[in-house]
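Protein in question reproduced for absentees:

***
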Amino acid sequence: MSSITVDFITLAWAVVLLVLLAHFASQKRSVTGGLMALSVGLYLIAQSGWTTSYLSGYEWGRDLSNYVWFTFNSSVFIVYSAWVCRYGRHKK
């Protein structure tokens, strides 16, 4: 399986997840849900930007996308931390 195929699978998964998050956010708003949507949005920007830059040989765009990847990874850990703080307190 090529790298582009794997990238497309995760890209499609992120689009579906973003639509589902928007649906659930319209019913009940939460900070964690907003952070999750932000993380998915950052993923879509980072993945599409990096792949496009890599395929076209655009090194500056690839380097910029690496910074977006760093922001995405940080936002994922913020979501995990918020989830653990919120749901970890209930387990006593």
About this structure: Residues 1 and 7 are 10 Å apart (CA to CA). The first helix runs from residue 3 to 27.
